[in-house]
Design goal:
- With about 210 residues, the protein is an alpha+beta fold.
- The chain folds into 2 domains: about 150 residues, Pnp Oxidase, Chain A, CATH 2.30.110.10; about 40 residues, no CATH class.
- About 25% of the residues lie in helices and about 35% in strands.
- The protein has 5 helices and 9 strands; from the N terminus they run H-E-E-E-E-H-E-E-H-H-H-E-E-E.
- Strands 1, 2, 3, 4, 5, 6, 7, 8 and 9 form a 9-stranded antiparallel sheet that branches.
- A hairpin with a 2-residue loop joins strand 3 and strand 4.
- Helix 4 crosses helix 5.
- The site of flavin mononucleotide (FMN) has 15 residues, from strand 2, strand 4 and helix 2.
Length: about 210
């Protein structure tokens, strides 16, 4: 297996402080539009990193469901490992990687729970089976078997038969309010472009980083 021989050249046009949007949310929107129009399989996949109380960072994929100038929103179980980590330390990392565009975005920010209203609205927009799964899964807990999980699914399917499952009390959204957003564009000869926005009292400072 010749892993060290894998070598891609990056020939996309660059980004600079001159051609990038003044506001990072506008820039994010442009790049998100590009991936949504492409064949990228999971365009909204985010690698979410938290710092656990055991001192180990942990990363996992979640899906971006909304974003605006207030932040980036994903949904999960508040009692999951990530939920417990955020309870202790709101500082999180969000990472997007789109291989077909040779682009990555890194966001450092603080996670806060969304309103119940926002969580309700999103929860009920999901297929009913996914709503039942949210009830059935005690996310990140050790469970005895697959059968145990399927029995819980059957139990909640019966309980909510013919009605809309309510929003589980420990399920909802987090909004990540960004402090820093870095846009990375792969370029020729490994001289990649990295443009960093840092939040200040008056808006956003824009800097270029060495690749
Ligand atoms: C493509 C993909 C999308 C996912 N989306 C979510 C999501 O939006 N919310 C979520 O809680 N877990 C999602 N997961 C599962 C998580 O990666 C993770 O396994 C789960 O949330 C438990 O993580 P934790 O134990 O670190 O809290 C997704 C996994 C994949 C591969």
């Amino acid at each position: 297996m010749k892993i060290d021989a894998v070598r891609n050249e990056y020939n996309f046009p660059g980004i600079s402080r001159r051609n990038i949007a003044k506001n990072p949310f506008e820039q994010f929107e442009k790049w998100m539009e590009d991936v949504l129009d492409s064949e990228e399989k999971e365009p909204t996949a985010i690698t979410l990193s938290t710092l656990g109380s055991d001192g180990f960072p942990r990363s996992r994929i979640v899906l971006l469901k909304f974003f605006d100038e207030n932040g980036f929103v994903f949904f999960t179980n508040y009692n999951s490992e990530k939920g417990k980590a955020i309870e202790e330390n709101q500082a999180v990392g969000l990472h997007f990687y789109w291989s077909s565009f040779e682009r990555q975005i890194h966001i450092s920010g603080f996670a806060e729970k969304t309103s119940r209203e926002i969580s309700e609205k999103y929860f009920h927009s999901r297929p009913v089976e996914s709503q039942i799964s949210a009830w059935a899964s005690e996310q990140s807990e050790v469970i005895p078997s697959r059968e145990y999980l399927e029995k819980r699914f059957a139990k909640f399917s019966k309980q909510f038969d013919g009605e809309r499952p309510p929003l589980p009390p420990d399920w909802g959204g987090y909004r990540v309010v960004p402090q820093k957003i870095e846009f990375w564009q792969g370029r020729v000869n490994r001289l990649h472009d990295r443009i960093l926005y840092e939040k200040t009292e008056n808006g956003w400072d824009i800097k270029r980083l060495a690749p």
